[in-house]
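tool=predict chain=A
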Amino acid sequence: MTLELSQQCQSRPTSCAMPARARPESQGELAFASQPMLMTGRLRLRKPQVDDSRAIAGGLGDFAVARMLLPLPQPYHPDDALDWILGWRQGDKSGWSHAITLGDGPLIGVVSIEMRNDQPQLGYWLSRQYWGRGIMTEAVNTVLTACFDTRSATLLQSGVIADNPASLKLQDRLGFSVTGVKDAWCNPRSAMVNLITTEIDRAGFTPL
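tool=predict ok
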């Protein structure tokens, strides 16, 4: 989270680093207040709203989804979702956060680019009943296209737990490069996992 290295990386507990590309001198601003609403043929990517809290709790309350995310509270309640939404809307979090919906339907997942230590970090999840339909690839592709087209950032970092081949395949298709593997605590599993770290820049992005 390229994939030809993923199996090799999984066999090594702490490192499988590739030389990282030189970091840009500065990153552009990613502002939640001005983030664009994005549309595809079937998806609407908008800001999370307070009334999304139950849909978020429903999606992240599924252990099959939660086990692929590191810091998630368990069990996950609507109040946890509300705190997360308000963190974006009140300015405690910085970056972009897009709720994924099918047209005007309810939230079915999220794609976020959150600023952490002045570095944009990509994260995403999708409710299990929508897996296998290309929705997450479409959503991430759309958000990255907007991000790079508006020069909101020049380099994004991400990561994938090593036993999540679907997410690894998604990132590979879009042009992410593996930068290493590290041990990380996965709260939903109450266990350490191998986290494959990745990054993508504007030159390496291959929009679909």
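The radius of gyration is 16 Å. The helical segments are 6-10, 53-60, 63-66, 78-89, 135-149, 165-174.
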